[in-house]
Write a structure and sequence with these properties.
The structure is a homodimer of 272-residue chains.
Chain A lengths: L10 H15 L7 H8 L3 H13 L3 E3 L6 E3 L1 H12 L3 H16 L2 E8 L2 E8 L15 E3 L4 H8 L3 H15 L7 H14 L2 E8 L2 E10 L3 E11 L5 H22 L17
Antiparallel strand pairs in A: 1-2, 3-4, 3-8, 4-5, 6-7, 7-8
Chain A binds a DNA duplex (30 and 30 nucleotides) through helix 3.
Chain lengths: 272, 272
Amino acid sequence: MTNHTPKSGAQLLDRAVLLLDLVAGGSREGMTLKALCEQAELNKATCHRILNSLAEHGMLDKDPDGRRYRLGTKLLVLGAKAANGPGLRSLCQPALTRLCQESGETTMLMARDRDDSVCIDRHDGSFLLQTLTGSIGGYVPLGVGPGSLSMLAFMAADEREEVLERNWPRIAAYPALTRDKLRRLIDETISQGYALDRGELVPGVAGIAVPIRVAETGPVASLGFTILSARLSSEMIERYVQALRDEVASIEPHLNPLDRRLTSPERILGQS
Amino acid sequence: MTNHTPKSGAQLLDRAVLLLDLVAGGSREGMTLKALCEQAELNKATCHRILNSLAEHGMLDKDPDGRRYRLGTKLLVLGAKAANGPGLRSLCQPALTRLCQESGETTMLMARDRDDSVCIDRHDGSFLLQTLTGSIGGYVPLGVGPGSLSMLAFMAADEREEVLERNWPRIAAYPALTRDKLRRLIDETISQGYALDRGELVPGVAGIAVPIRVAETGPVASLGFTILSARLSSEMIERYVQALRDEVASIEPHLNPLDRRLTSPERILGQS
DNA sequence: CCTTTTGTTTCATATTATGGAATTTATATA
DNA sequence: TATATAAATTCCATAATATGAAACAAAAGG
C-alpha cells in the first residue's frame, strides 16, 4: 500500500503510522529500535517514545525481553471490527457463501482502497490455491489480478489514468505485466464486462472477477473466483460470470446512494 | 478492552488512539465529528485535525459525503498482519484444524492481552454456535468464559489477584458471574486442569478449554471447544480434554524461551 | 572481565499542536 | 425557494508539547 507521508498537521501521527508500517513490513521476527530509527530516519529518543506509546496502547507488542517490536493485539481487534462493521463484508457475505457453495471454487471479495485493491473476505473452495493477494488483508496495486483489474477497468477514464500513473512503478514489479499487456487487459475487461486472468500472474492459477459499482463513485469492490487454470473452460467462464453478475446485481442497489434510505443502512467500506 | 489513557509523553497519540477506540465502539453507521468531540472531550478543531490525519493514513475512512468516520482499511490490513505474523496463530493453526476436523466442534484459539482474552482464531464445526467472544478479534475480560478462565486460573496467584481486582467491574456486567461463583470456577479449573462452562454464560452453549503456558510468563493462550450444552457428556469432556492436552503439549515447547534457538523462530503474540 | 552496542531517561529548547473565533457547507424549517 | 440552524472546516497567535543531544544503563559480544 502506498506509503503516503503527508504533512498533515499532525507530525507525531505521521511518524507513528510510518513506524507501524515499518513494523508491518519488516522482519517477521519483529523490529529492533535501531532498525526502526534508521528506516524511519528518526532520532533514537523520539522513536523510542513513539514506539513505547504505541506499545502502551496495544498497537504494538514488545517481546518479553523488550528488544523487538511487532504488531499488537489491538490492531487485530480493530482490524476485525473494521472488516465486520457495516459495509461491504457484511453486505456481501451471503453472496460469497452462495457462490462458493454452488461452484466449489475459491471465492474472493476485494475492495478498492485508494490505489490498491484489498482482500476483504474469502471463502476457500475444494482446492487450496495460492492467490495473488493471499488471505484477508492482502493487497495489490489496482490493475494487478482480475479482482483488482475489474475495478480499475471500470473507473472513469481520467481517474483510471491518474491511478495508473501512480501505480506503474509498483506494477512493474510483476514481470508478467508490461504496460502494453495491461492496456490490452483493461480494454478486454471493458468490452467483456468482466476481468479474466488465464493463469499468467500466478502460474497455473486463473481468475475471473466482476466489479461492484456505485453510481457516482465508480467501482468500490469486486467479486470473483480463483480457479486452477488447467480446469478453465469457456463454458465454465460463461457460467461463472453469470453467477457473479447475478449476485452483483442484487448487491448494487444496496450501495446506490439514492436508495440508501430505502434499503438497509449499510455503507461501503474502503472509500477515501 | 481497557481504555488506558496514559500520559505517555505523546499526547497526540493518546488522543488518536482514544478516537480510534471511540469509532470502533460507536454506532455501526459511523461516528460524526460532533459525537467524537463530545465523547473524547476534545476541541472541535483538534479533533477534526486528528481524525483527518487518521483518515489520510487510511486508519479511518470517511463516508463518500464525508460526515461520518469509521474504521479504515489500513486497520484491516495491519490487523491481518498482526494475526498472521509469526506467533500463536501460525503456530497453532495445524492444531486448530486437526481438533476441528476430528471433533466436528467449533474450536477456538484465545490469547491473553493484558487483562483481556482475545479470540485469535476460530474454526467453525458442524453447528454454528454463538460464542462469548464472537469471531476473531472479539474479547472478554480475563475470567469470563472457559478459554479466558483457563488462562486466569493458571496465572501466578499474585498476578491473578491483580487482574481480578482490575476486572471485577467489567465481570459484574455478566449476571451469571458473581464473585463467589468465579472464585469457585477458578478453584475447579486449577484442580481439574481445564476450564469448563456447562452453558451458564451463553445459555445452552457450553465450552471446554485448556491453557497454553510459557515457563516464566504463565499462560499466554488457550485452546478450546464450544459445544451445544445439550450434547455435553462426561465421556465427551474427558475425550476432548485429552485431545486439547495432546495438541497443547506439542505446541508448548515451541513457546518455551529456553528452546527458542532450537525450535522455529516463532514468537508469541499478545504480550504486554 | 572489559568493550561495544543497543536501549532508556533527562531536560532545555523551539517546533508543533492547540483551541477560540471566523468561515464555509450542509441540513432543517418556514 | 428562502431563511435559520447546526455542523464541519479553516485560520492563526499562543502555549504547551514533542524534540533530540547528551548522559546513563543494560545487554551482547569478544
